[in-house]
Design goal:
The protein has 393 residues and is α+β, with helices and mostly antiparallel strands. 44% of the residues lie in helices and 11% in strands. It folds into two domains: 6-220, Lambda Exonuclease, Chain A, CATH 3.90.320; 232-293, no CATH class.
Length: 393
């Protein structure tokens, strides 16, 4: 098993993680040329969670070569990182447990690879990526991907990143194993989201043909710009893309064509097409602000200082001086308990549940609107006759 430096993972020009963008909007590849990469604190947090997960899996797969002492020493270093939180230990345990359960679900021990670099360049020129976990048993190839983010639930169904990983894994092991069924899994423990999608080999290879066509467009520079909320979300050129602007502004002109009540059969179209508008305006504002701050002249706009804020030069000394001056501590300190979520994060899920888990009540969230491919069941306020009238025997 090759050890991966997660912080220095190589990324292909047409990466698996960016496939939802370049495959949908192949013109974005040329648009992104020359724009530097940035890494958010959330990405760094995810990297740390992957490192911790890999250590636990290494111990599970090779308890002799990577025993408790080595595991504990390596985990100790992880916990020294400023981004580490106690809850990360429990969430990575959930991911490892999922892999264990998946391995035990087969009639005999499967072949397992973790942090495996896979090559899908047969379909995407120069394409490669790192797959979190691969299990193979008989004719079944199983891909498992850890998503540590908690912003939006990620689905395994038709997930471009997982499909490319599956193609790469098939490419690596097809000469050894007679792979006929491919199972793709996403484990997103912070949202309790476990998603799976299964295809046969013929369907996987059809996806390979699709990626081959789209990657050719992207790399040749002839790819069209096809903006969408999904494609634009992580595109580095989203601030300057005129196609995105035209797409969002065209919705306004279409609505003006129908000055009366919006037809119900148009709601889905308008909501899905307009999903990106608010994000687009905020992106434009951030881009314009940066131009102004670098001295560029942006017609009609300027950068100004925000609201002033005050802070102590030394808070501890200031508070001590107040108390020495006879000010009551009750005036200085506001004693407020941490929220339930913050307490759980501070203690870790296991300790929290052991101590007060039975005192937590989970309430149903307020109704929210989603697209129909969402896995959650639909609800309605309509009272059904069966709930009013009881059957008479």
């Amino acid at each position: 098993m090759t050890e991966i430096n997660h912080k220095e993972r190589a990324h292909a020009k047409l990466s698996a993680s960016g496939a939802s963008r370049w495959a949908t909007c192949p013109g974005s590849v040329q648009m992104e040329e020359g724009i530097p990469d940035t890494e958010s604190v959330y990405a760094k947090e995810g990297t740390l969670a992957h490192e911790l997960s890999e250590l636990k899996l290494k111990h599970y797969l090779d308890s002799k070569g990577f025993g408790k002492r080595k595991l504990n020493a390596a985990v100790k270093k992880i916990k020294e990182d400023e981004l580490y939180q106690a809850e990360m230990d429990g969430f990575t345990d959930n991911y490892v447990d999922f892999i264990k359960e998946k391995a035990l679900s087969f009639p005999s021990k499967p072949y397992i690879e973790i942090e495996k670099r896979v090559d899908f360049s047969s379909w995407v020129p120069g394409g490669f990526g790192t797959c979190d976990c691969i299990l193979i048993h008989g004719t079944t190839l199983s891909i498992i991907d850890l998503k540590y983010g908690k912003g939006v639930p990620v689905s395994a169904e038709k997930n471009e990143q997982l499909i490319l990983y599956a193609l790469g894994a098939y490419n690596a092991f097809s000469l050894i194993y007679d792979i006929k069924k491919i199972e793709m899994n996403i484990v997103q423990p912070r949202l309790n989201n476990y998603s799976s999608w299964e295809v046969d080999l013929s369907e996987l290879l059809l996806w390979g043909d699709y990626f081959s066509i789209q990657s050719s467009k992207a790399l040749s520079g002839t790819g069209e710009l096809v903006p969408s909320a999904k494609a634009c979300k992580f595109c580095k050129a989203r601030d300057i893309c005129s196609a995105r602007a035209e797409n969002n502004l065209s919705l306004e002109s279409e609505i003006h064509l129908n000055p009366n009540e919006i037809p119900r059969d148009k709601l889905f179209e308008y909501i899905s097409r307009g999903e990106d508008i608010a994000k687009w305006v905020n992106d434009l504002k951030a881009y314009a602000l940066n131009l102004c701050l670098t001295g560029e002249d942006v017609k009609g706009l300027k950068a100004v200082a925000g609201r002033t804020s005050r802070s102590w030069t030394n808070q501890d000394e200031a508070l001590k001086k107040l108390m020495d001056g006879g000010i009551d501590e009750a005036i200085i300190f506001d004693k407020v308990p941490l929220t339930l979520a913050k307490l759980e994060k501070a203690l870790g899920k296991e300790q929290f549940n052991n101590l007060v888990g039975d005192m937590v009540v989970t309430s149903t969230g307020k109704p929210t609107l989603v697209f129909e491919n969402d896995k959650r069941p639909a609800i309605t306020d309509t009272v059904k006759a069966t709930s009013i009238f009881k059957p008479i025997n």
